[in-house]
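step: validate -> pass
step: tokenize input -> pass
step: predict -> running
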Amino acid sequence: MSRFSVLLQDKAAGETSFRSLGRVKRDFKGSKVGHAGTLDRFATGLMLVLTGEATRLNPLFSGMDKSYRATICFGSETDTLDPEGSVVATAPIPSEETVRSVVSSFVKRQLQTPPIYSAIHVDGKRAYREAIKGRNIEMPEREITVYSASLESYDDGLAVVSFSVSKGTYIRSLARDIGLKCDSRAHLVQLDRFELGPYTRDDIGRSTEELLLKLSLPRMDFSSAYRKALVNGFLDYDGILSDSSIESGYRMLYIDDVFTGIIQKESGRYSIVALISREEI
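step: predict -> pass
step: emit ->
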């Protein structure tokens, strides 16, 4: 039986995002398992794990803003922009005053060049695979927004910086670019994602329904008389739904006050996105 669930977990350093799903795959054997938002192997922090039909909700989570605490090492840049790479450039270590000023200057909407060691597709191929082969790759710029950037500490070339950023932002690239703007070079040595959309570590262990409620999605209620129709994917637009809003988007589905799944409204029409269990409804 495929089980619908949304889980929040804290990834440890030294494991890939894919490998961190191992325990969930064992606990939810027979269900599809995926995650919304990759973390680099050296990084730690919050990851949303989706199982069963909840994997269809990836678009709901993938656009979330994120907050990180990054430790940036000035004076050297690595090819991967993280501690696992090889040093490709060195430069003098900047002063704390310079670092503080430059960090604050990155709070804005801007174009960012992602790292070549990333999973982004370039000409139909994963960039990191081409980089490993030693091929020259021109990474396309993307628009990002840094909502906040705060220097928490600076000691002997190591800066701890907290960032709040939009979807698609690479903190490794921010470290590189901050280093260059300081007339230095830099790479990440630690990275922790401590906020993911509305979620913090305090939300680890909460139920699927509790996690979804934090998204403040509109609620749609049905009576048990429509149970079979809903499982089969049919919605009676004339009688079942009382939502008169014109807004599109996701809604939480309840049958007799029991959370049952997620539906979506697009162009005035509703469709079922994911049900907690078609066998049990």
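step: describe -> The CA atoms of residues 226 and 240 lie 8 Å apart.
step: cleanup -> pass
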